[in-house]
User: Fold this.
Amino acid sequence: MNKPLRRIAIFCGLLVLALLARDNWIQYVAADELRTHEKNRRVAIERYASPRGNIIVDGKPITGSTKTSGSDFAYKRTYSNGPMWAPVTGYASQAFGATQLESLEDGILTGNDDRLFFRRTLDMLTGKKKEGGNVVTTLNADAQKAAFEGLGGKKGAVAALDPRTGAILALASTPSYDPSTFAGNSTTTDSKAWEKLQKKQNPDEPMLNRALRQTYPPGSTFKVVTAAAALEHGLYENPDDKTKSPLPWTMPGTNTELKNEGDIPCENATLREALRVSCNTVFGKIGSDLENDKMLETAEEFGFNKEQFTPVRTNASNFSDDMNKSQTALSSIGQFNTAATPLQMAMVASAVANDGTLMEPYMISQLQAPNLDVVEKTSPKKMSEPLSEENAQKLQDMMETVVDKGTGQNAKIDGVTVGGKTGTAQHGVANSKNPYAWFISYAKTDSGSPVAVAVVVEDSDASRDDISGGGLAAPIARDVMKAVVDSKQ
Amino acid sequence: MSSSTSTTNTANTSTIGSIGTPSRRNTELALLVFAVVIPVFAYVNVGLAVNDEVPTGMIGYGLGLGGLAGVAHLVVRKFAPYADPLLLPLATLLNGLGLVAIWRLDQSPRLQQRAENLFGAFSPDAPKQLMYSALGVAFFAAILVFLKDHRILQRYTYISMVVALVLLVAPVFFPAVNGAKIWISIGAFTIQPGEFAKIIIAIFFSGYLMVKRDALALASRRFMGLYLPRGRDLGPIITVWAMSLLILVFETDLGTSLLFFGMFIVVLYVATERTSWIVFGLLMSGIGAVGVASFEPHVQERVDAWLNPFSDQVMQGNSEQMAQSLMAFGSGGVLGTGLGQGDSDLIGFAANSDFIFATFGEELGLAGVMAILLLYALIVERGIRTALAARDPFGKLLAVGLSSAFAIQVFVVAGGVMGLIPLSGMTMPFVAYGGSSVIANYALIGILIRISDTARRPAPAPAPNPDAEMTQVVRP
Assistant:
């Protein structure tokens, strides 16, 4: 009987071998995946095991942590002025996970980041409790306040950048939400607050970060891109030369006339004049003359068709690549398929303001270890150069005329040069829905341009003419710019 | 794998010329010291990690485990002096580690809270488990004291069959616990009769097959390279197969069913040396499993939880445990979090019984789990080694039956909690919380030790030949 016995011994060995192999699979090969699995509560337990590091604006924390009891989470996240800062911080909730900076920099905030390994080991040996590091943002509290309060009860978003570096100064989205209302894991209060914010119960989508994640038809503000394309591709050289723009103008390949808003002097208008009064015919024809490829080239140089990582991801703005002449004409005045995030339009203004150089937008200036040592510092990076310095200055000149004598006069600030462009985008079937009011602008001082801003107000009750952009959005942009200029002095 | 041990041990177990065979009792004692000291250190480790202090129960626990080991060792020294020296230390070590893990889970606020919510009060399981272990060792000692020779069991072949059947059928008349009918409750006690039936039915299989092996092995036709048994000889295998299917259907206990059928096939194969039995066995268990799984919802649920442990449907249903178990293993990684520092208590239900292996996985890591699996492998291989050394066919069959049942149980449980195979309601021998399990497994080790003592005992010196003396007297 011994031969089968030996075989049974081998069989039992194989059973154990299978177990060993499986164990190596789940504890080594797939271990990381299981450890960080979204359903693994340990991730949240770890996240709230010690006071979380803070997100800092202008040297002051906009977040905090309080001790909690009665659950396996030791600490809970708190937010000061949560609704205002929610588009920047995102949320860190014991029950519902984390997003945006709270999620992306979770390693630093919890103190688990590999870059803190040495320190953590030292703390372990000296018996000190683990602490989280801080995330220092580039935001400007005054500008953010101006943006958030300017939007007030309206639905909309504001994005502001420092054109010289790409640093994000303001990022507001309304209606907003207070992440501290669902930071805990109580099934009564926190879950209810969370449910109420979901799209199903709240069609206003307060948790949507409109400044980064919502694309809108940019309307006439896109004419700045079209003007840049006209200058860059040599279609026109001088803002004050007459353009070849018939009125009325029928779009090529169609019987449709492109209309202007009201009876404005657009026939063969100069680029400056066309931008000042916002001529659809002039910029539509430029788009149709340049055709899809050249328009696309310029739009993509400005950052269209690409997600940005600030490090919070933005949605990609859209400028299509398969359009005929008439579609390109419509797209070139910010209609048809063209869609942009507020941040994207702020980038357009900032590239013009920074003499043609577009900097990568970013919102983290540095990451700090718990003892405030700098772990990582962001240095401004050039992203592209959508137009030459010379052309940029021509375009600045034109945008300044818009604010000086055109549709954007509401954005004027005493003693500061301001350039801007209004816009009103129609949407809905047969343009039935309320239009979006847009304004993009920059301010310029002796030391270059410290701020470029884009404002969009949804569902504006205003009339559909181009003035509404100047009426509703421009004052918000002005306040944001003023806040930045004042705080720099 | 047994080749190395067999070569080193051949000299010790050979019956001829074995004067002065070492009994290896001192080896056993030395190993037992480790088997007690390691869990005591683990116990202190848990205390330091959970409460930042050396646990006050350390002395009691150390003395308890040490006392049990000491008693067991003395009994072996007195009543089974030539027994295999590894089996008892291995069982003690696993038992000790299990006690530590159960005590560690007793300290979990999450499980305490859970017990209070469900039953209104929480009572720690570790002291009970220590008591069960003491009962287990008492069983172990009783077997060695009263069972002088394992061949006595052979007399009870058919009684064993009846007892085993009664034990297996009994749970049908008691309410199901978590979907599986594997418990019977008498007053405050609940007993898992399957654990005891495992041993008793091994006695029946060995006794029956020892008698019938020749008929089963020789009366067969050769067909396509396989020896096909005669129709009437198929009777027993079909009976056992039907029985295990019935267990599966009426008690919805996948594990026990697999265990009995697997053990039967192993013993049948060893008894007849016919590979065809294995082929038949695999085919029949495959047909049976697929057949039952296709209409039994409880089994389907288990298979579902095995295939998609993380799907919302499974996690919101009753089977969150599977995902929690996998995440516990994954979170442990290679070296583990350290005893007392994991969150394996998230598993909730049955964290210290069916799923206790996940606590080892998280807190001792890949390294610890592999070590524990190898401890089990050693027990199994020592058991099969005992079967090889045994001189009587009944002893061989019984030893291999018990060892392979042990191996299959470890595979089914550990494979279940690690997601290698669908989960079934069995417990990890020695480490899991549960009186029936720990008592039955000590009894199993006791029987193996008895067989190995008989097998390794030097042959008695030839009795003086009375004929020779008479011859001497006659010689002038």
Summary: The radius of gyration of chain A is 27 Å. Residues 212-364+382-488 of chain A form a domain with the Beta-lactamase fold (CATH 3.40.710.10).
